[in-house]
What does this fold into?
Amino acid sequence: MPKKPEVVAEPQTLIDIDDVSVHFQLRGGSLSRLLGRDTGSVRAVDGVTIKLATGEVLGLVGESGSGKTTLGRSLLGLVQPTSGRIVYDGADIVGLSERQLRPLRTRLQMVFQDPNAALNPAMTIAEQVGHPLTIHKLASRGDVRQRVGEALERVGLAPVERFLDKYPSDLSGGQKQRAVLARAIITGPTLLVADEPISMLDMSVRAKILQLMIDLRASLNLTYVYITHDLASAKFFCDRVAIMYLGRVVEIGPTAEIFADPKHPYTKALLAAIPDPDPDRAVPRDLPRGEIPDAAEPPTGCSFHPRCPAAFELCGWERRDLKALLERHWASVPPEEYERERQLVGDIDGLDEPGGPAVVQPGRASSARDMNVLVQRLQGAAPDDPFWRGVRDIREVGSGVEVQFEDGHDPRLRPSGGVDVACHLY
Amino acid sequence: MSELTDRPSDDPYRRGTGEVVISARDLRIWYGTERGPVRAVDGVSFDLRAGETLGLVGESGCGKSTLGRGLLGLLPDGSKMDGTLQYRGEDILAMPARRRHDLRGTDLAMIFQEPLTRLNPLMRISEHFEEALNTHAPNLGRDQRRSRSLAILRTIGIPPTRYRSYPHEFSGGMRQRLMIALALVLEPAFVVADEPTTALDVLVEAQIIGILHDLRREIDTALLLITHNLGIVAEACNRVAVMYAGEIVELGEAAQVFRAPQHPYTRELLRSTISLSTTGLNFIPGAPPDLAAPPSGCRFHPRCPTAMRICPTRTPRMLPTTAGSLAACWLHQGGDELPAGAREPLERQEISVAEEA
It folds into this structure.
């Protein structure tokens, strides 16, 4: 008697993203290239591990520069990871040549953000929606038009005769995005990577396209990777959400849990920042300051620490944080006070290098003592700034005042209450 | 000024207190095209007072940007503007072109969408400010120019250490702050901001909205904020004007309008916005009409879920509603004067995707 198959608790994995990194080499100046100097690299994606289950909708959420698009593109082999493995259907697709990747492309498809750029203005809708069939030799010339008709009908561009021989310029924004979706599904893919598919559209059209994607998921058994900066649509559409910041996943878990109890301070900030038409919701007051930093020289420790309202000793404080603090201080004091204090301090460009400790040099007419007084005043002006939690010691050294920082660590993703989060608080 | 305050008090657009900075009555803007005139703005009326922020919302192609540019006299060739438009009681449309030119910058200003294309890459930030102040306020001395620039940068949260930097040394959000600072350094009485946060990230967008929100308290500028994002209006504006097909269809206090929208278009627009509290997707069928040949009667009637028989035949006027806002909708007006059967639901064909936006 055949053994009863075991009930599979884990859903089947469609794509296994294992410690994937994508680093882009910086070109640097011509001199450093000539001398073969190391020009550094941008870590667009830095050690991401995600198992994508068949049939699920995974949201990759983050600001521009978080690496969400690069990660999405690497799933289709449009960007080659510099390390790690992406296992699809039992085989690693990292390092495959274009020729080897081509058969996979019928099953892995992409929807781009800007439908105006994704459609060829010189091709009719019938030509470009049917193009994948021709390229992959999936249908005879006679069948293509019929298959295109079916695809257009599926995405709601009906009656199809009205659209087949139109050019993209004859279509509205929403209709173009439907055509892009039709082209993506015509080869019968299992995975759709949708990169901001609704963010270029008018508010009143977004819901329609999102509904279409939900309908297609049900009728075609699609798995989605939904790349977005918009948490509201991710909450509605996704089963699981990965919050990305500077190439890392900082929080990942089931949508319901992430939204009910956001853990990472960055997730909390993103949620607080969504403008809500509900008039009873007040303007968020404590938003993270600044913007996503340069990925070529990310902050030490946790990359979010310079903007984080909850940062503390372990988070990786460094020189550049002192410069940011100085600039924040100077932006808040009256201009005369700024002029006076600026005279006291020497060159502050030395604070641009990553790492610690920070040495503040006095200006021409001041002393190390004055620097010490200034740093004390900074602390007095903003005693609650998280920066001071990371300061171990402030002392006068020969030429100026040295600010020493606590040792910082880079937080790793750890399970915490149903989700995985990379933050020292958990 | 006296002419403005002496208007009869039954003018439904004249409410509240504070100096009226911009007053538009029956303002019309049209473009000449091969298909005939396109009426991008068609009979728009509103007042904007000092220190007030009016949000202008609607789908693309409803005439929002045209109206914003028209108010500043920045329309392209081939367009025409008619109606009444007053700046502090002075008729803008009737004044000599020279006078209108002088008003721009000092009194009327604009914050554009794309800061990178509006800032000169070869000029330091200090030079941008110097140029603006030299052109429009030549009486200021060098030190005054500098201190005024630094003061506005401080309000907007840019450290003075960056005053001599070039535009490329700033991040996107910082550049947008610079655009706001450049528009405000001359302390204009009226500013149009056309989608000032569209190209920005969520967190930076929220920072900019916060700045605009705070500015309202600190300076007495009247701001017209054009956006398609209703959430931004709710957070940054005191009043809101909802535009559809070249007309303002609802006008009122932002909180009131969002809590109890009176015009079906406002209601449907709010319902179709995806927010964190969205539990089901709603959308408005169809697309805004071609403004060269708009629908008869109420222009929203072909897409309106509550359209009645009267709607395609007669145009509703902007009238006060019980909720407090002004709305142009037959649901709230007409009373017994309407002919029998006028309030019966309108029978019509369903709108297919082929007509969608």
Summary: Residues 202-218 of chain B form the longest helix (17 residues). The two ends of chain B are 43 Å apart (CA to CA). Confidence is low (pLDDT under 50) at residues 1-8 of chain B. DSSP finds eleven helices and twelve strands in chain B.
